[in-house]
């Protein structure tokens, strides 16, 4: 990717923000090498994504905007636009954890349901994995670094059937790229209408007051919907570069649907079992201002139906089966199912073995981000 001077200014702003947020906090990752590897992987994925974009205005945003991984154990992605400075996007490491866990689980359940590449997995294990995903998704209130994301029990790719691994990895990749594209969509529309994320600016304060006066949630939903629409178009362009590989092409598009489904699943768990032996499924990173999951999914399906018409049901069978396969387990959790004793024992073992080795300071940030 050929970066502009604006990109390097944006990156300096991002790293200054990361340094400020992380200063004095324990790391929510296993070690420096692990994190640097994750940064390089994400940057490579972004480079491939941006190269597939045909819209010059959107492509310039990728070339001008730093997208940096930040080591917090919570699910979050945010566009930050400081006043009179270049904007940047921060992606928390738990996004990688969350979609990895949920993609491994769903492709396994889907394969089992269709008697393909069957893996022996019990109902209690599924409930444990969903609780772990909820811990990752809802962990980390405020800016302090919470560590449940690395302690939570996960379904690793090396455990699932090898015939399902490529699909699981593609679903996770598509989910990460959709989240990044969603934030790029915000930046695109912000620049179009002059509404910036910085509420301390005069313009930002005006719009914020204006939204609240008219009904802030309704207008915020519209902004999120516009970001979704833009993100879908980016992902369609990305997927189209793999049209000569139909299984990968459709796994990417099904992966975007899976991303929306996985987030919707977490929304259904919000506020349920607020304290199960210390496990709190609360916290609102997926805020009420965001589109309701079912509506977001419906709009995406409508877009795909226009493209694939009569073939939609067969090509997107994995997406259409998600509710039928996953939601019975959600209903059990809502009705009172709790994690197993093994779940808490494994979490305690991980806590003892994986205690982070250092506390972040400015030098840590400089060394890891290469400045």
Describe this structure in words.
- By secondary structure, the chain is mainly α.
- It has one domain.
- 65% of the residues lie in helices and 4% in strands.
- The chain has 16 helices and 3 strands.
- The chain has helices spanning 5-22, 32-52, 56-64, 94-113, 123-138, 148-151, 162-193, 202-214, 216-240, 246-269, 293-308, 312-315, 317-320, 322-334, 341-353, 362-369; strands at residues 66-70, 77-80, 88-92.
- The protein has a 3-stranded mixed β-sheet, sandwiched between helices.
- Helix 3 (56-64) packs across helix 7 (162-193) and helix 7 (162-193) crosses helix 10.
- The radius of gyration is 20 Å and the shape is globular.
- The two termini are 19 Å apart.
What's the structural blueprint in terms of helices and strands?
Layout: H1 5-22, H2 32-52, H3 56-64, E1 66-70, E2 77-80, E3 88-92, H4 94-113, H5 123-138, H6 148-151, H7 162-193, H8 202-214, H9 216-240, H10 246-269, H11 293-308, H12 312-315, H13 317-320, H14 322-334, H15 341-353, H16 362-369
Parallel strand pairs: 1-3
Antiparallel strand pairs: 2-3
Number of helices: 16
Integer tally of domains: 1
If strands are numbered along the chain, what order do they take across the biggest sheet? 1-3-2
Measured distance between first and last alpha carbons:
19 Å
| Percent in helix | 55-70%
What string, H for helix and E for strand, traces the elements in order?
A: HHHEEEHHHHHHHHHHHHH
Roughly how many Å is the radius of gyration?
A: 20 Å
The best one-word shape is globular
Residues in β-strands, percent: under 5%
Structural class: mainly alpha
Major pleated sheet: 3 strands, mixed
Low-confidence stretches: 140-145, 281-288
Average pLDDT taken over every residue:
82
Number of strands: 3
């Amino acid at each position: 990717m050929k970066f502009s001077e604006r990109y390097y200014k944006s990156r300096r702003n991002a790293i200054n923000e990361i340094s400020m947020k992380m200063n004095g906090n324990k790391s929510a990752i296993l070690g420096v090498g692990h994190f640097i590897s994750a940064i390089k992987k994400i940057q490579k994925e972004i480079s491939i994504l941006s190269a597939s974009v045909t819209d010059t205005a959107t492509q310039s945003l990728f070339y001008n905007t730093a997208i940096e991984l930040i080591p917090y154990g919570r699910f979050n992605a945010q566009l930050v636009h400081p006043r009179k400075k270049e904007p940047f996007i921060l992606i928390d490491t738990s996004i990688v954890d969350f979609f990895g866990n949920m993609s491994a689980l769903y492709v396994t359940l889907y394969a089992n349901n269709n008697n393909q590449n069957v893996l022996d997995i019990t109902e209690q294990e599924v409930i444990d994995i969903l609780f772990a995903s909820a811990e990752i998704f809802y962990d980390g209130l405020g800016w302090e670094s919470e560590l449940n994301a690395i302690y939570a029990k996960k379904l690793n790719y090396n455990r699932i059937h090898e015939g399902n691994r490529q699909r699981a990895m593609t679903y996770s990749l598509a989910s990460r790229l959709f989240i990044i594209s969603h934030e790029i969509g915000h930046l695109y529309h912000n620049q179009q209408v002059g509404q910036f994320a910085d509420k301390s600016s005069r313009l930002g304060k005006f719009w914020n007051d204006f939204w609240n006066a008219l009904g802030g949630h309704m207008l915020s939903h519209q902004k999120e919907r516009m970001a979704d629409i833009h993100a879908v178009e980016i992902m369609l362009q990305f997927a189209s570069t793999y049209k000569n590989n139909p299984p990968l092409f459709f796994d990417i598009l099904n992966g975007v649907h899976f991303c929306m489904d996985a987030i919707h699943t977490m929304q259904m768990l919000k506020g349920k079992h607020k304290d199960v032996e210390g496990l709190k499924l609360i916290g609102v990173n997926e805020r009420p201002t965001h589109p309701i999951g079912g509506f977001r999914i419906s709009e995406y399906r409508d877009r795909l139906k226009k493209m694939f018409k009569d073939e939609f049901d067969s090509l997107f069978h994995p997406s259409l089966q998600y509710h039928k396969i996953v939601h019975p387990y959600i209903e059990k959790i809502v009705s009172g199912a709790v994690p197993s004793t093994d779940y808490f024992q494994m979490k305690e073992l991980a806590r003892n073995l994986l205690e982070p080795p250092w506390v972040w300071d400015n030098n840590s940030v400089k060394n890891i981000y290469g400045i």
